[in-house]
Amino acid sequence: MAISAAAVTLAAGCSSSASSSGAANVNPSNQPKNPTLVITANDISGGKNAAEADWIQKTLIPDFVKAEAAKGITASVTFRANGVDDTAYKSKLALDLQSGTGDDVFALDGIWVGEFADAGYLKPLSDVAGTQINDWDGWKQIPDAVQALGKYQSKRYGVPNGTDGRVIFYNKQLFAQAGLPADWQPKSWQDIYDAAAKLKTLSGVTPVQWDGGVPMGEATTIQGFLPLLAGAGGSLYSNGKWQQPGKAFKAALGFYQQVYGGGFGDAVLQQDAKGRDKSFAEFAAGKIGIYAESDYMWRSVVNPKGGTAPMADRDTNVGYALIPAQTPGAGVNNQDFVSYSGGSDWSINPKTKYPQAAWDFLAFMNSNAETVSRIGGAAKITARSDVNTQVLAGDPMLRFVNDKVLPITSFRPSLEAYNDVSALVQKAVADVVGGKSPDEAAAAYGKALEARVGADSVAGGS
Fold first, then answer.
1. What is the pLDDT of residue 20?
2. What distance in Å separates the CA atoms of residue 59 and residue 175, rounded to the nearest whole number?
3. Which CATH superfamily is domain 166-340+413-459 in?
């Protein structure tokens, strides 16, 4: 479908302008005046991520073409749409880049960055488009913690497109009944245990939902375990090695032992194939007191307008707090509070024939004006602090994530083995929820980790 002068085409068979010659140090003043770009994302009008697909076609590309024309450049941009499972999109993206036919600019999950870089499918942006990328004014608006989403080994491989943050939600009405404060902010894990003990006195109430177990999938890892690991000062991967389970790893498992072994959580629910959805419904019905989740829960689950488990009184009855370190100062980087985030990036094909135009497009699409345009008035966290200040003014919870959570957040290792390691984490957590000791579960994890990634890729213990 063509959009005015933008030459936007939706055609799975359209060819990329990438070349095997690649590009290194770019001189912005010595670039073609009629670049042709092909961009791609896992978006498609009428299907997956339809709103973003429509924005790319109807707004972003025409805006970019107009801006380039004002500089005397006649740009032609084609959008290659996709609407498939993320795994299928990832495979297609990798195959295209491997064969040298990959598109010039593309979206990818932040967790794929390291894997694609190691495979040679990505290069640092400065290697592709020159050191000019470091002068982009947009970097000043993206917190360092969020920039990590597009970084690998301290180098920038992409521009973050959006992110989220993990917090603790709680039911203020239940807290009042249990004699707990409406403005609760735990400063240690013990504070969570103490609150759970009071909530346990309420009939029909599960004090804590902290995702645990294999059926919860990646939610167990990123919503539950990783913030705890960070809160004890540990990480899964550090200094180029996967980490053997040490003191911090066992401490995180110990949290699950306290919660589920102490009767503060519903262990059976963690093993239910639909346990996460059921726990959402229970929280919305006022049957769970404390729930660790991302801002997704606020935006899409308990949202009174269109949520999957809407709460009419969300804005007055749902509180939110930072996730505390095990004890003050015990978190990663000596932090008092911690979080984990996910998100996506936009990157440039190292073999593009038009590196300057590709970078210009990337910078333009992530500018203040285009970022505001992309979210279309919705209260949604973007990678840019200035945009978040503009669009989150009416949503204190999302503003809380932007102001308090993103500056202290961490990201998962962007390595090929991560998904398998995450599955091992889920099994270790399930073992503890099921009654095994943290030491037993950690020992089994350590053996399985070496078997999966190789003993040479494992070191230390955190």
1. 43
2. 46
3. Periplasmic binding protein-like II (3.40.190.10)
